[in-house]
Design goal:
The structure is a single chain. By secondary structure, the protein is α+β, with helices and mostly antiparallel strands. It has one domain. The chain is built from four helices and eight strands, in the order ααβββββββααβ. Strands 1, 2, 3, 4, 5, 6, 7 and 8 form an eight-stranded mixed beta sheet that branches. Strand 1 and strand 2 form a beta hairpin. The N and C termini lie far apart (75 Å). The relative contact order is 0.14.
Amino acid sequence: MKKKRMLLISLFIVFCLSFSGIQYYRNQRIHNIFDEIYYEESDYHAVEFLWRRRAFRDLKEMKIIDVDSKESERHRVEYDDKFLPDNVTYLIYSFHFSDPKSPYMLIDIRLKVPSTDHSINVNYYYYPKSATFDRYMWYYDDESSGYFRKSQVEAFLAEHGKTVEDIRKEADEVLRNKVLKDWTSINSSRFSSNNWGDVTVKDIWREDLGAD
């Protein structure tokens, strides 16, 4: 009986140490608010779906879209149109876990261009391996052709009385006051919509990616 009791105590101690180690590892990964979002989804889809609820399901404004296709995102979380700010036509997260060398999370915000049927796309790419957050702007024309170069985007915006800085500011406001505030409303975050943590923000263009 005494041996059995000692065995149970030993197993309990091992369990506690293992649990503490796992929690320590999990916390060490989190350097900013985007890590929180990325790893919450990553951990959930890896194994934790077996015992816990997905955090985004607590946000009633979201549509959960999980597909299994090489042509599209494996895991996507999309805002319902009726909950979007007036200046936004489309807002989603998509999570790309498949490449262990360069996994990333995308936040796609499409802003209305005043007095037109067009929208301007502002994509935020977060790379947890390097803690970098790339902001990328582009648009479609009436022929559904995409324009990605800085000069093309600047010319398009100038036609409609806007600048790149205007759009960056507008998109960042949506990111802070909608996306990140919603996240902190469903998650006990160490960060806030104004305090993102340790992350490097960069602006990139198609030229930076080496495209023709």
